[in-house]
Structures are given as structure tokens and as C-alpha cells.
Amino acid sequence: MALLLTSAALADDVSDAVDSDGARLDVGVSTQYDSNVFFVSGDEVSSPSAVAQLASGYRWQGELTGVDVAVDGRYQEYTDGSLPTVSAIGAAITVDRAHEFGSTRVQLAYRDESSLLDVLNNNGDFVGDQRQHTASASLHRMFELSETSSIVATLAGSRVKYIDTPAGVQQDDYDFTSGGSQWEWQYSERVTFGAGVVGSWYDSNGKRFTNEVTTIGPVLSMRYELGETMSGSVEASYRRSESKTVFLGFIDQRDSGADYYGRAGVAKQFERGYLDLDASRSVQPGSNGSQEIRDEVTASFGREVSERIMLHGGVTALKSAPTNDGSVGAANDRRTAFAGDLGVDYVLAERVTLTAGYRYLRQNTDAADTDARAQTVVMTLRWELGGTAL
């Protein structure tokens, strides 16, 4: 959960392809202090650490087709010798294609990383050296029907595999796919409506049970421009869900239901800053063998204090619960969490930036002795050696 709450100010991820042609390289070194490294209650471990990060890539842009290749890595060593080293490596390739009436984007990515911030297996046991392998793919296709209408189809999927050492307890690997298709109509220069269908498919395989959940239903959306510097969007869907859980290989339990999902967001651009607000209800894959319904509210802001100084931050509050209480999920799987961060960027030179950041995490669950909180302070020096930083 803490891993999911980490905001962009302090997290690293494989970014979307950039538009500029050529190579890029971004190097960063950090010093960091965590008050609760494993984000657990009752046995907090605090430690400073040193972090090295590297991100590189190459963008080739042709007349109609663009190809972007990106790789990134992270290495974190704690001063406490009893703590394992954190490492991560990721790679992604993105292909963009412009058509006479529309466009296509395809992305393939793979990531191998330590999961120190989510180190409890399905039995609630501590697993300090857990690693997570994630392979993902996405497709976005837009068909232009006329100057004011189009059809947009999206499909995204991932396969997640957990490797637990030295405990040897395998967390439930899972596959998750979501997608949909919408017809979009530009009603005016400021308003665009959409209507279509969305759905998701989830499959988890574990030693105790297997679980499969499918959702599908209609969706309506609207994007609007409130002015030259302010925009908003809303989306709502109603989905039927079907789940099948098999215990011990032969006990078959099936459930069905329905729920509402939606999202609303507002973005405001100021002369020297920005403010983004977002609220949503979504379905998310969970490593405990079930899907979760997540209610989430986020806010982020940035303010240019001077030509060299940028202030930025954000908050996230969420509440999640299994979609199928009574089968795989249980009442004590429900949780609420909060994360907040604040950072300052100081430009030392044209391609050198010093960032100081602070993050606070808090989690409350219905299970006994599982509430946790943590604080992180980090200082990072980043050097863009060439091109556009990821």
C-alpha cells in the first residue's frame, strides 16, 4: 500500500515517450532517511541510505512513426547492515504511428524491483527480500470519423510475479487487464462528450485458492474547458461483476454483483504554477488474491518562486476494500491511507538540479496491530547529461 501511495515527487518510474528526437541521459544521487523502512507497526526500523539512479533512452522520430526506448535503474544501500539492498531495473519501448484518420500508440515494459514497502505475504508474515517482476503492455487507438467525432479504443494489461526470499512463501501472482472503447463527440470548442463500454479481467493463482473476476458495463464521459487556463473532466461507469474462487482445487464459489465507478478532475494553470484536483472510484488488482474497490482523492500543486526555485507537493487519501467480501476478501482487509509530500527544486546550473523533499505516510486497517506510519526525508542531485530527462 505504501508503494502505491508514493507520489511523483519521490518516486521513480518508466515515463511516457518524449517528443524530441535523439538520446537522453539523466543521473541522480540521493541521501535519504526513512523512519519506518518496512512500513510496519510495532517493529519499526529506521535508517539513512544512499541512492543512485540512472535513466536513459533514445527517441527516433520518422515522418509518420516514432520509436522510443527507455531504461532506468535504482540502487539503494542502507547504513544499517541488517537491511537488504533495494534495487530496481526497468525497460520500456513505445511506438507511435500517425494514420490518415487517427493514430496508434503501443507500449511494452518490464520491471524487476525490490518491494520493501509492501513486505507482508498473504499470511501476514514479514518477507524482507521480496522482489516483484512486472511485465505490462498497452494499446491506444484513435479513429477519426469526422472533424468533430472519433472512436477511441484502449487496452492495457500486466502480469505480476512475486519472488519471496528467504521465507520461500509465494505471494499470489496475478494477471490484470482493463480496457474499453468510446465514441467521442466534440459538441463545441470547449465541450466534448463520450459514450462507450469499459471492463476489466483479473486472474490470481495461489496455493490456497485461485480467483477470477470480470467486470463490464457502459461508460459516459465529458471533457470541458472552463477558460484558457482551467479545464475539467468527468467519467462514470456502471459495471456488472462476476467472480469465481476455487479453494483447495475443488471447492467452487461464485459471486456476482455490480458497482458504480467514476472520476472527476480539475486542472488550473497559473502564471507561475499549477493546481490539479482529482477524485475517483476504481477497481484495482491486489496481491492478496482479490480485486479492490478504491476511493481516492488527490491534489498536487507547483509554484515557481523564482527563476531557480520551484516548490511542489501533493496529498493522497484513499479507502480500499475487496470487491468480493465473503469469498477471498475479509472485513479486516479494508484499509484507509494518507500520503503527503513537499519538495523544493533548486537549479544549480543549466542541467543540474538539487531537490529536497519530505514525505509522510499513514495507513489504518480493520485488522489488529496493522496500522503503520512513516516519514521520509530525501535530498537528490540530478544531472541531465543530454537530451530530455525522463
What secondary-structure arrangement, pairings included, does this model have?
Layout: H1 2-5, E1 22-34, E2 47-61, E3 65-78, E4 86-99, E5 102-114, E6 131-144, E7 149-163, E8 173-186, E9 191-205, E10 209-227, E11 230-247, E12 251-270, E13 273-285, E14 291-304, E15 309-322, E16 335-349, E17 352-365, E18 372-386
Antiparallel strand pairs: 1-2, 1-18, 2-3, 3-4, 4-5, 5-6, 6-7, 7-8, 8-9, 9-10, 10-11, 11-12, 12-13, 13-14, 14-15, 15-16, 16-17, 17-18
Description of the structure:
The chain has 390 residues and is mainly β. The chain has an 18-stranded antiparallel barrel. It has one domain: Porin (Beta Barrel). The longest helix is centred in the N-terminal third of the chain and has 4 residues, at 2-5. The chain is built from 1 helix and 18 strands. The radius of gyration is 22 Å and the shape is globular. It is 1% helix and 69% strand.
What is the overall number of helices?
1
CATH class: Mainly Beta
Shape: globular
Estimate the mean pLDDT confidence. 84
- Biggest beta sheet attributes: 18 strands, antiparallel, barrel
- The portion of residues assigned to helices is under 10%
Number of domains in the coordinates?
Answer: 1
Order of helix and strand elements from N to C terminus: HEEEEEEEEEEEEEEEEEE
Query: Which segments are poorly predicted (pLDDT under 50) over 5 or more consecutive residues?
Result: 1-17, 117-124, 325-329
